[in-house]
Amino acid sequence: MQKERKLLIAGNWKMNKTAAEALDLVNGLRRELAAVKEVDLVVCPPFTALGHVSQAILDSNLRLGAQNMSEHTGGAYTGEISAAMLKEFSVRYVILGHSERRQYQKESDLLVANKALTAHAAAIKPIVCVGETLEQREAGITEKVVGDQVRGSLAGLSKDQIEETVIAYEPVWAIGTGRTATAEQAQEVHAFIRRILAGLFDEATARRIRIQYGGSVKPSNARELMSLPDVDGALVGGASLEVRSFSDIVKNSI
Ligand code: 13P
């Protein structure tokens, strides 16, 4: 299957894996996925494992991502991690505005936009997450919610920067629930996001931006989701924690 945009499949390990466990996982992935060239592959371990994983994926087709980053470049921000600190471990991507951070850390679209600008200044590609809750979907306001998040979380990005940005559509009701968006639901929102991007920038730019789907992606549904015209990859949570399931998701997507 040849798509207009190269698929990007990323594992968001969330708050899982000690450094030793992370090494086991990434060494297994390295072995299983060594031959994959058709898909860009990213692993996003917790901060404490970045150094170990960074070493373990040298000279491989796996790239490193972080799960969060400060909007500030340095200074008195206890507990925060800067872009420069991530760069030290050759981090190429950073997940920003994940729904868990929006919910538990009260991250706003403005904060996410500022973080995205800080990431770009350090040549780290942001993976900006958006998605509606079940309540919002049932109230029929999915497009309003997702549209506001896209516009707000990308505010201030230049055309060059947006082309180096990944968007992840993760319906909150599909995260960790085993309940995946149907192909129609996913395609509909992805196409909607691309129309917003075309309005914010232009058609050609919108066509170059990768929009990942996230929410209970597993080996059994990866093929259908990844074949949708506006789905350009996956942000995988639970199923990224095992070599077998993550590898099968990747292989089933090719
Ligand atoms: P699950 O794949 O566990 O549903 O998590 C999705 C997610 O939140 C990825 O960022």
Percent of residues in beta strands?
Answer: 15-25%
Strand order of the largest sheet: 1-2-3-4-5-6-7-8
Mean pLDDT: 97
Find the CATH superfamily: Aldolase class I
CATH topology: TIM Barrel
Classification by helices and strands: alpha/beta
Helical percent range?
40-55%
By oligomeric state, this entry counts as single chain
CATH architecture: Alpha-Beta Barrel
Rg estimate, integer Å:
17 Å
Number of domains: 1
Tally of DSSP β-strands:
8
Q: The biggest beta sheet, please? A: 8 strands, parallel, barrel
Total number of helices: 12
N- and C-termini, Cα separation: 7 Å
Q: What top-tier CATH class fits best?
A: Alpha Beta
Helix and strand string, N-terminal first?
EHEHEHEHHEHHHEHHEHEH
Shape descriptor reads globular
Point out poorly predicted stretches: none
Outline the structure in words.
The chain is α/β, with parallel strands linked by helices and 254 residues long. The chain has one domain: Alpha-Beta Barrel (TIM Barrel), CATH 3.20.20. It has twelve helices and eight strands. It has helices at residues 19-33, 50-56, 83-87, 99-104, 109-121, 134-138, 142-153, 159-163, 183-200, 203-208, 219-226, 243-253; strands spanning 7-12, 39-44, 62-66, 91-96, 125-130, 166-169, 210-214, 233-236. An eight-stranded parallel beta barrel has the order 1-2-3-4-5-6-7-8, surrounded by six helices. The longest helix has 18 residues, at 183-200. It starts with 6 loop residues before the first strand and ends with a helix. 1,3-dihydroxyacetonephosphate binds next to strand 8.
